[in-house]
Amino acid sequence: MNEYLKEQILSKNGFICDMDGVIYHGNRLLPGVPEFVNWLYETDKNFLFLTNSSERSPRELKEKLHRLGLEIDESHFYTSALATAKFLNEQSPQCSAFVIGEPGLVNALYEVGITMNDVNPEYVVFGETRSYNYDAIIRAVKLVQKGAKLIATNPDLTGPTEDGIIPACRAFVAPIELATGKEAYYVGKPNPLMMRKGIKKLGVHSEEAAIIGDRMDTDIIAGIESGLETILVLSGVSTRETVNQFPYRPNHIISGIDEIVAGLDLT
What is the DSSP letter of 216? Predict the structure, then answer.
């Protein structure tokens, strides 16, 4: 790690961190993460795990990290499911939706008073899901054709797991977009709606903060457009080769969180 990166990390008062591909792969914690989290606490840094994954609630994310050996309060998590629920509640309070997603998304919608409706909903809402099937696609297409607005939690095409790269939210939404001619509105990173809320929750000015992520098309562009120091880790989706496919660059490219830890002499 170069001295400039060390100085930038040491000087920042706040950190926004992605989770999948940065903190863990599936149920495997990535190297250096416990030491990095300890450093955040010991140096009294503000930090927020800002994830485009809509599968789990902050409480479930807290419990998952507890199982992996990390103790982090649920106030340090903000998800695309929460951002989507907030957006829909502000757009159309007490609306109804046909939802294809996991409990983290469904519960976030319930919490703000949105009801489930598979007959005549105002919205069709997509998130990551393990129960994606042909019947759900057909139902979503018909509802959008009848006038339901198409919303998706995040624009990620793929995501990292212990077993490699798998399809993510945008890949699930694509057939509905193609069949209906309607483009979904994506709420998660890099949408400014989610980033503004994340920076507000973080509690520091954007110039005093850094974002650590594994995706050029969500984390890094979101950080650039929000005025954050941007750190791309190669432990998730992006590689040095894929970086060259984009017209913008992160401030720093590192192998993973363990490189930050090594640079800070915490090991």
Answer: I
Please write the tens of the pLDDT for every residue from 100-133: 999 999 999 999 999 999 999 999 999 999 888 9
Strands 28-29, 77-79: parallel, antiparallel or unpaired by DSSP? unpaired
Q: Classify residue 120 as exposed, middle or buried by CB count within 10 Å of its CB (0-12, 13-18, 19+).
A: exposed
Q: Is the pTM of this model over 0.90?
A: yes
Q: Which domains does the chain have, with CATH numbers?
A: 3-52+190-263 (3.40.50.1000), 81-186 (3.40.50.1000)
Residues in the chain: 267
Cβ atoms 156, 215 nearer than 8 A: yes
Q: Which residues pair with 97 in a beta bridge?
A: 116, 123
247: left (phi over 0), alpha (psi -120 to 50) or beta: alpha
Residues with a catalytic annotation lie at 18, 20
